[in-house]
Design goal:
The structure is a single chain. α2 crosses α3 and α3 packs across α4 (50-57). The protein is 62% helix and 0% strand. The relative contact order is 0.19. By secondary structure, it is mainly α.
């Protein structure tokens, strides 16, 4: 029987920001128009929820 697989883990991963990952900070900074330092600060204060960070920094 073939494994059908689900996207549950992938979707959960995309909903979070890993502040230790430089490429994620750069991507989010370019996406929101903020600096990497601003993104890192937002992650520290709000947690690693991508939606919360984007709402605070504003989306382009």
């Amino acid at each position: 029987m073939a494994h059908t697989g689900t996207t549950g883990g992938r979707n959960q991963d995309r909903a979070r920001l890993a502040d230790g990952q430089d490429h994620e900070m750069k991507y989010e900074a370019s996406k929101t128009g903020a600096s990497k330092a601003d993104v890192k600060s937002a992650v520290k204060s709000l947690g690693n929820s991508r939606k919360k960070v984007e709402d605070k920094l504003g989306r382009k």
